[in-house]
Amino acid sequence: MRRSTAASFNEMTNRVVWRETLKQGRQMLRHWLAAGADGVRSTGDDTQMLALNILLSAGFGRSYDFVSVAEDRAADKRIDAMDYREAIKVVIENAIVIIGVGPHRLPALGALSGKMAYVAKAYGMFQQYMVDMLDQGRKGDAASAKGNLLESLVSASRDDKLLSQQEVFGNMFVYTFGGHDTTAHSLAWTFVLLSIHPEVQEWMREEIREVLKGKDSDQWSYDDFARLKRTQAVQVRIQKRFQAGNAHADARGQFETIRLYNPVLGVLKGPVDRPVQLSVDDGKRSFSVGRDFSIVINTNAIHTSRRHWGEDALEWRPSRFVQTDEAGRESLMVPPKGVFQPWGDGNRACPGKKFAHVEHVATMAALFHGHAVEPVRERGETTSQMTDRVRGVINDITINLTLQMKHPERAPLVWSKCP
After folding, report:
1. At what angle do helices 43-60 and 11-34 cross, to 10 degrees?
2. 20 to 30 A Cα–Cα from 347, which one of 12, 66, 122, 198?
3. How far apart (Å, rounded) are the C-alpha atoms in residues 393 and 410?
4. What does the domain layout of the chain look like in residue ranges?
5. What phi, psi does 4 have (nearest 5°)?
6. Is there a cis peptide before residue 271, judged by omega within 30 degrees of 0?
């Protein structure tokens, strides 16, 4: 299954992600600026719409304009008016229900509940699109579809006979959920964190303007991605390759927000097919893991360990990833192997990690090149009190398959143009 999908995560796809993210970011910013001094309370919902549109474009070959949460809620929600984006959105929002109930039971439950009928219709549209692709092949320009995730899965099933129809459905469901929810929530956290760290905004903006040289955003090139080191420090670590004969491992993946607020609480390894010996505490202790046992790596514990990250391990400080040499040149710090694993590590690392990295960096460039964000100050509130209140929102966390802020709407944000 990995072989069937890995080919779609390539530089051609990354260029699509870059262009689409800049477009979506500009459209989202216009909605946020229009909110004025009252601030934006829909940050969490809007980042989900942005991430969904990017995924649909780069993964499914379908392009949509950004729609704010207010417009989306006002839209016609009749079953017969549902479009494909709405179907995917409903599938993602009701993933727990679909998994728990089972897709085959949705139609029967839909006869008893209006909401479940809507969910059943959405899942049916999602599945029918897969069937159409399998039966008819990719519609539209084949050249533009090359590298598309859906096309790769269809080809693996229809041409190479590697995947069954149900395996195609399963892969698309997992990639849709995994590629959307995690990115959307980490973006929401980043915006709220940046709102109480204006010094980080300015530090990042200085580099964005230097690299992009005042060009119109329509002219920004994907080739500039690797040069945005400070922006990547807020988001991701630049690529570093480890050579071993003809093999190499892509070590991209540093990301200060996801270090502290990783949406995926643990990475599952196993079950192992034979007993293994594991050592801990630098080899001072060891224990045996029996056959058929699974191991879950506690990523949040690793990412906040003072041993590896210093006494300020619990502080959000993106500059920790930027190193400056004697000549003043900046580079990105690469942590020791195993210390940072939000996308896993080694041969089984998430194949879509650079997809997410490009999406994050392009979003930051689109929004912070000429604009700034700050929290809405409540009546009589000092700067210190405002910061403490927003931090409370950031750290009020819940789990809905992934980790996320429980009430991001309680930290309304004001966006404004800066000099």
Report:
1. 150
2. 12
3. 7
4. 2-264+304-417
5. -75, -25
6. yes
Dist. CA 201–CA 233, nearest whole Å: 12
Residue of 129, 133, 139, 152 lying closest to 12 (CA atoms): 152
CATH code, 2-264+304-417: 1.10.630.10
Q: What is the pLDDT of residues 88-112, one digit of tens each?
A: 888 888 888 888 888 888 888 877 7
Assigned token pair, 327: 């000549």
Are 372 and 418 in contact by the 8 Å Cβ rule? The answer is: yes
The overall average pLDDT reported for the chain is: 82
Mean pLDDT of 151-168: 78
Written as one string, the DSSP assignment of 308-367 is HH-TTTTS--GGGGEEE-TT--EEE--PPTTS--BTB-GGGS-TTHHHHHHHHHHHHHHH
From the list 285, 268, 267, 266, the residue with the least C-alpha distance to 277 is: 285
Average pLDDT (405-413) is: 96
Closest CA to 195 of 21, 379, 39: 39
**pLDDT(374) > 90:** yes
